[in-house]
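Supplementary material to the annual report.
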Amino acid sequence: MKATILIRPKAGILDPQGQAVETGLGHLGFTVRNAHVGRLVELEVEATDSADAHAQIERMCEQLLANPLIESYEIVVEAAA
Amino acid sequence: MKATILIRPKAGILDPQGQAVETGLGHLGFTVRNAHVGRLVELEVEATDSADAHAQIERMCEQLLANPLIESYEIVVEAAA
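Predicted assembly:
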């Protein structure tokens, strides 16, 4: 089952990559605000249904994919083909 | 206007982060396949409409946000509030 995980810096946490993007784009003549940079993880997991896939991926996020102290994550499980 | 940019390694390009995620999750007892790690950029841009926002962000991706040689990008502009 295919899934996409969106990992974002939590609000209020310093986001140096987002600041660098804002500054860099400003130097190129673009005006942007509130730039934030996170990670995008896509994977396929063996699961009986989408609830099972969601539960497995939640454990993966807590254990390896994200740092729950400073990052939040959003799990999107694709409907089975 | 808010926008989300999903930046992924192109198919066929070596993705060491994705491989590390697969290996790491395997060591934790999870079975996953085809893991890929990309970047997620969220920002707000001044634009007259969503087509303008899309065009501006495409230029940002080509110039700074992505490496078009090895990465593909997907731009999602949110409907104006």
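Strands of chain A lie at 2-9, 32-45, 71-77.
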